[in-house]
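WARN retry 2 of 3 for item q-0093 after timeout on previous attempt; input resubmitted unchanged.
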Amino acid sequence: MTKVISIRLRDDMWEALSAIAFEHGVGMSEHAKSVLAESLDRQDDRLGANAVGQATVPEQMSTVERHTLATLHRILARLVDSPSRTDEAERSDLDLDLGRDGDQADQMRIARILERGWVSEYPTVFGDVVTELPRRDSGLVLDILDMFRFVGVSVEHLGAEDRAALGDDTLRGLEFDGFDGNDSYESALLDYAHDLIKRGKWSMLAKYFEPDFPYDGGNLRAHLARKTSSRSARRSGGF
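OK item q-0093 returned
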């Protein structure tokens, strides 16, 4: 059995929530339902780090699973290009673009491992598969991006007098710092945020994910280092 609820929103709230739903790629009703559902799972330890890393490698698979995966790798072996193994730079670029699919020999090797059932070699088959990012952690990324988008819009509408009252340190403190790429948990959040930005979501925050200095692809430490050096320069009379 399902229940239906009705709520009234001010026009400005409706517009803001519609913008968030659009960023999430869903309609207003679906977004509202997902937010309510997620509220059931939000606890005080929401920021607690989950174990993030390589997913559990199976110690056993059924014959059907092995046959299915082996067949898929044999098909992939006929689809991937076969770069020259003497040109390491070219091969590295191809591996990156194709999600490290490798060449025909790599795919056939994986197919053989699965067909022969060499369990000790399974880590090489599943090595690129990481643990799942739970829904609440994915939601945390969306919430963070939403928050800094609205903060950014609000700061843009400040007048010169309000900016002066806040001061440069406060304004810089309101900027998005990114995620800590050296932390296994936050690096998983950063990876998901990267994918959202690449798909055109939260476009006003895209500059914070640029690969070059000073943002280093959304890496928190690089951005904080820039802020620290800026403050030090001002205090020493640099600007």
